[in-house]
Specification:
With 151 residues, the protein is an alpha/beta fold. It has seven helices and five strands, in the order αββααβαβαβαα. It has helices at residues 3-22, 48-51, 58-66, 85-93, 111-118, 128-140, 142-148, and strands at residues 29-33, 40-45, 76-81, 98-103, 121-124. The longest helix is centred in the N-terminal third of the chain and has 20 residues, at 3-22. The radius of gyration is 14 Å and the shape is globular.
């Protein structure tokens, strides 16, 4: 995957993360792109706080918004933060082919497992905007962040 394309896709997930933060939630956004790399099948952000639903992660919100697809092969999940084990399982279960990750400094999820055991193409961008978004949030709301990661 071309890095310019990955950064273009990431902008959708960042917009979702900022929307979640503005709603009082955790700033993690995601989008599921079709095999053409242009069509957004679904987008969403972490809604754990807003919906009171511990399973409403950014990736699951984007996946649900995409609705039923005949297949998820060839699709790309774009997320501002490395996917946790729960979201990594979703990616593997449904055969999503590629994951574009904004950053993995503040949370290192299951993306190595996806690449090594499931053959998922992983593109880790280490995007400064994503890093700043999460480090600022963690500093301002450590209790909410710890709740989100199960600590």
């Amino acid at each position: 995957m071309k890095l310019d394309d990955a950064h273009t896709m990431l902008a959708t997930a960042v917009a979702e993360a900022r929307a979640g933060l503005a709603e009082g939630g955790i700033p993690i956004g995601a989008a599921l792109y079709g095999p053409d790399g242009v069509t957004v099948l679904g987008r969403g952000h972490n809604m754990r706080v807003q919906d009171g639903d511990p399973s409403a992660h950014g990736e699951t919100s984007a996946f649900r918004a995409a609705g039923r697809q005949r297949t998820y092969r060839g699709t790309t999940m774009v997320t501002t933060l490395s996917p946790c084990w729960y979201c990594s399982g979703l990616i593997r279960q449904f055969g999503i082919s590629r994951v574009v990750i904004g950053e993995a400094r503040t949370f290192y999820g299951g993306h190595d497992w996806l690449a090594e055991s499931a053959g998922v193409e992983v593109v880790l961008l280490d995007d400064p905007e994503c890093v700043t978004l999460m480090t600022d949030f963690i500093k301002e709301r450590p209790e909410l962040w710890n709740e989100d990661i199960g600590e």
